[in-house]
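Practice problem 4.
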């Protein structure tokens, strides 16, 4: 894979990778198998109340697995962050990605580069700027993304094109955000809090593939509605209330 050729770019930086996973047995072994080839210290899979063999498969593939019994993307991410906090040496950068093999790890080096070389705090992998495989995003996902990023531009004055899950953030910046959201609002909370704190935020194009299995959010009408509601209310909440924590 081409990201191996870019390892020298980040060889002096400690990077930990977090993968929230809920019932991703068919894909998680493939994702972890690719991830452990990266120049990362830890691949942490946050097993989020899975009822299949996600935990066993991830561990067999080489991941450090932590268990979060409460369902929710944010719960899983916070659980994994707790494990990072236990390390004797903290990471310099934390990367988040999904466990369904939709994110393309060939884009790993370009995701890290703005932090390592240009001093950015937060880098979003933009599916809008990259190449999306046909059928990789539903119409409600695409519409919701455009609505959310438009609201962010109107309210916060910053142009994001995506709320994508594949992202990198400086660890000290991540801690400063005091992340709280437990469910669907995690990604947008990170972005709007970073803007409120005047952090350096940027995007890079990433490619996006059709996921293995069915989405637990966009794959259902209920999940799509709840996610959209949570994202919009999170954008508004941090804009108009003095509530950064």
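Answer key:
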């Amino acid at each position: 894979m081409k990201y191996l050729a870019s390892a020298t770019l980040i060889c002096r930086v400690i990077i930990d990778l977090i993968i929230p996973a809920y019932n991703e047995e068919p894909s998680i072994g493939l994702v972890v198998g690719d991830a452990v080839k990266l120049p990362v210290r830890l691949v942490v899979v946050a097993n989020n109340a899975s009822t299949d063999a996600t935990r066993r498969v991830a561990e067999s593939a080489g991941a450090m697995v932590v268990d979060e019994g409460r369902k929710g993307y944010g719960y899983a991410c916070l659980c994994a962050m707790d494990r990072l906090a236990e390390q004797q040496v903290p990471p310099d950068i934390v990367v988040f990605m999904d466990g369904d093999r939709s994110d393309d790890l060939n884009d790993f080096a370009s995701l890290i580069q703005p932090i390592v070389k240009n001093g950015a705090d937060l880098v979003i992998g933009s599916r809008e700027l990259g190449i999306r495989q046909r059928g990789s995003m539903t119409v409600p996902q695409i519409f919701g993304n455009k609505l959310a990023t438009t609201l962010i531009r109107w309210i916060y004055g910053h142009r994001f094109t995506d709320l994508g899950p594949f992202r990198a953030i400086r660890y000290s910046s991540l801690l400063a955000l005091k992340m709280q959201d437990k469910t669907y609002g995690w990604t947008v909370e990170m972005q709007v809090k970073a803007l409120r704190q005047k952090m350096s935020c940027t995007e890079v194009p990433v490619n996006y593939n059709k996921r293995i299995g069915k989405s637990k959010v966009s794959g259902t009408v209920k999940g799509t509605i709840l996610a959209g509601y949570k994202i919009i209310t999170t954008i508004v909440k941090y804009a108009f209330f003095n509530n950064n924590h």
